[in-house]
Design a protein that fits this description.
Length: 507
């Protein structure tokens, strides 16, 4: 590694093969604290949601015939930003030192006397075949694997790849970046003695929910790829291990594989829903339509939190309200017992689960996750007449709950814990993806996600259907002219995921 510098530092970070779950913890940690992020075409742009709001994000993508920046310009950019005292993350698809030109970038930094660190990544050369059900080694078939690139430096007088040696070596051979030259490469392989019926697989966008796999033989794979318009980026696997795919394929067999689903929750909350949908095989586009901000009158909220011990009941309507309440509470008090004898009510299992994370017992939780059900539960519990109730909720939320509790004789104070505002940022380019690729389904988890998505004014993709988390959200969607195709029976995130699965599989 280069000697330490008192200026900035550049991290050459492997972004992995595309699946967010295959990104290293070290990569995520560095993205969270980077001042500058320079990323490539093959990096999953969803990784950028981990970046700090103040980070400078620079796209330096290179694909066939399209170079945003030349390699020399990228090298100069890394040197310039590192020398300026910045923490720079150079995010590269797969592993930075496997056909990623990371070695050249490290040399540029070393020559400039700048500090750098290399963070390896999971390479698509292994990950893509694995996702396609192809082990690159197998005890009964081959004990060695060779990696080579099909995209060599244009200025070379002749190919550095010794196809004769590859033919003699045998085993599994994995080619990166060569699909556009597949016809010439397979002809060279055949001319150098590789057998015509050698199994071959092409895996496009491996490990992502856009994955496509094409299988053939060495003598016909190029024609098959051309006939189907099979385009890069793709990994090619040559070898008998390809024949195991029929038995071992798993990735494309997941219930939602091939479905593109839009998630409209806040950036901070989207993760749970997105992860569960991705685990079922769907391609998720996160388009946060709202973000959570402190309430307009934070002082008034803090004063109500300070007096929480004086209430008979504290009612929480969402995990966001729980977060906001205890963020203030533990700035005022260092002991949970300061909440006094107040009993706790929660709407929805997500709210209850968040309370339990703060080690707060939930005394009342209705079976249905709507405000009206809380009122019914209070009536079953003996009523609320003359009881003091603190309602921690969002600004501009429905007024059903405070009105009905007051009508039953409760003394209700509304503690506005947070407000939702339209999300205007699009760091990951998700809106562009929706416009270019369309979607099969959009999910709404609240009335505000419906309102704010429509306020974005994005063209509605042809055939995109609507799924909602519950009746209140469904009503908001219908009131704005949308057709609701299904509604979750359980009005929480697991319930919505289950409703999506049943909608597409019928099971």
């Amino acid at each position: 590694m280069a000697s330490e510098s008192k200026t900035g530092k550049c991290f050459l970070v492997g972004a992995g093969p595309g699946d967010l779950g295959l990104v290293t913890l070290r990569a995520k940690e560095l993205l969270e604290r980077a001042d500058v992020i320079v990323y490539d075409y093959l990096c999953n742009p969803e990784m950028l949601k981990w970046a700090a709001a103040a980070a400078e994000v620079i796209y330096a993508g290179k694909r066939a015939g399209e170079h945003t920046l030349t390699q020399e310009e990228i090298n100069a950019l890394l040197v310039e930003t590192s020398r300026a005292g910045k923490t720079v993350v150079r995010l590269k698809g797969g592993d930075p030192f496997l056909f990623g030109r990371g070695g050249e970038e490290a040399q540029a930094l070393a020559s400039a006397g700048l500090s750098f660190e290399v963070v390896p990544g999971v390479t698509s050369a292994i990950a893509a075949p694995a996702a396609a059900g192809i082990p690159v080694t197998h005890r009964g078939m081959t004990s060695h694997v060779t990696f080579f690139t099909g995209h060599e430096e244009p200025g070379k007088a002749a190919s550095a790849i010794d196809f004769g040696a590859l033919a003699k070596l045998g085993g599994t051979q994995v080619m990166l970046m060569g699909v556009e030259r597949l016809d010439a490469i397979t002809r060279e392989m055949l001319a150098n003695g590789m057998r015509a019926d050698l199994p071959v697989a092409l895996i496009r966008w491996g490990t992502t929910t856009r994955q496509e796999t094409l299988v053939g033989k060495l003598n016909n794979i190029a024609d098959r790829a051309a006939g189907l318009g099979f385009e890069p980026p793709a990994v090619a696997v040559f070898g008998d291990v390809v024949s195991l795919r029929e038995q071992l394929k798993w990735f494309e067999d997941r219930p939602l594989f091939g479905k593109r689903i839009v998630v409209t929750r806040t950036r901070a909350q989207a993760g749970a829903l997105s992860e569960q949908l991705r685990a079922l095989g769907s391609d998720v586009i996160e388009i946060p339509t709202i973000r959570i901000e402190p309430p307009t009158d934070l002082r008034a909220f803090a004063e109500l939190v300070q007096d929480a011990h004086s209430y008979d009941w504290i009612v929480f309507t969402s995990p966001n309200g729980v977060n906001a309440f205890f963020d203030i509470f533990y700035k005022l008090y260092d002991d949970a017992r300061e909440i006094g004898g107040a009993r706790i009510a929660a709407i929805g299992p997500g709210t209850a689960a968040r309370l339990k994370e703060f080690h707060i017992h939930v005394d009342l939780q209705p079976e249905e996750f709507v405000a009206e059900s809380v009122v019914k539960e209070f009536q079953k519990d003996g009523g609320v007449e003359n009881l003091r109730i603190l309602l921690a909720r969002a600004e501009q939320a429905r007024d059903v709950l405070p009105k009905q509790l007051s009508a039953l004789g409760g003394i209700v104070d509304e503690a506005f814990a947070y407000k939702t505002v339209p999300e205007t940022r699009d760091q990951t380019g998700a809106r562009r993806r929706l416009l270019e690729q369309g979607a099969d389904l959009i999910t709404f988890t609240s009335s505000s996600t419906v309102e704010n998505f429509l306020a974005l004014g994005l063209p509605w993709p042809a055939g995109m259907q609507v799924g909602t988390i519950g009746p209140i959200t469904s009503k908001a969607a219908r009131d704005r002219g949308l057709t609701v195709d299904f509604e979750a029976r359980r009005h929480d995130i697991p319930g919505l995921v289950e409703a999506v699965r049943k909608f597409y599989t019928g099971q």
